[in-house]
From TrEMBL:
Keywords from the UniProt entry: Isomerase, Rotamase, Signal
Pfam families: Pro_isomerase
Designated name of the protein: peptidylprolyl isomerase
Entry's EC annotation: 5.2.1.8
Domain annotation PPIase cyclophilin-type: ranges: 31-200
Record SUPFAM superfamilies: Cyclophilin-like
Source species: Alteraurantiacibacter lauratis
Length: 203
């Protein structure tokens, strides 16, 4: 009996300590025409990237933007690939580019549900982002890769905590085989999915 009481007390005491050790995140809801996606922004582990996205949210810069791309990968498990959305370099919406936060510095990874900034060169990300359908380790930074193109990877800054079924529904939406340029041709949605509003989740 005493041992059970001690074990119970230990669990009780360890709960708050474990909660305090968890990295700080900020929940945000993306209200889309296909349903809501709730994400947790990693403001402690990826402060530059998550802070940038939060500014887009707080200033209403994502309201009325769209998910416009669904990249499909023929890999298991399926569905696999990513969806992409955001400001599409709209000069009325975008903020200045931010410094690149590689996953080798943040400790985050391109796991299922990860949010990752779209970019050209490192340090060029503004207001476009992707959500992973499955883990994409090739998008993580790899400083030891013999190909310099893989050294920096992409910046993860949050994870989906509710609404992955909405992400999968957007990914499954019809694509236009003639839309897109270069290697993205055929990956553009026939009808973009509108992000009606992006807001901080209510406590």
């Amino acid at each position: 009996m005493i041992r059970l009481l001690i074990a119970s007390l230990a669990l009780t005491l360890s709960g708050p300590a474990m909660a305090q050790d968890a990295p700080q995140t900020v929940p945000v809801v993306l209200e889309t025409t296909m349903g809501n996606i709730t994400v947790a922004l990693e403001v402690e582990r990826a402060p530059i990237t998550a802070g940038n996205f939060l500014r887009y949210v707080d200033e209403g810069r994502l309201d009325g933007t769209v998910f416009y791309r669904a990249m499909h990968l023929d890999w298991e498990p399926r569905p696999n690939g990513l969806i992409q959305g955001g400001t599409q370099f709209d000069p009325a919406r975008i903020l200045p580019p931010i410094a690149h936060e590689p996953t080798s510095s943040t400790g985050l990874t391109h796991a299922r549900g990860a949010l990752s900034m779209a970019r050209h060169d490192p340090g060029s990300a503004t207001g476009d982002f992707s959500i992973m359908l499955q883990a994409q380790p090739a998008m993580d930074a790899d400083p030891n890769n013999p190909d310099p193109a893989f050294h920096d990877g992409y910046a993860v800054f949050g994870f989906v905590i509710e609404g992955m079924e909405v992400v999968e529904a957007i990914h499954a939406a019809p694509r236009d085989p003639d839309k897109g340029e270069g290697w993205m041709k055929g990956e553009m949605l026939a009808e973009a999915i509108v992000i009606r509003r992006a807001r901080r989740a209510q406590p």
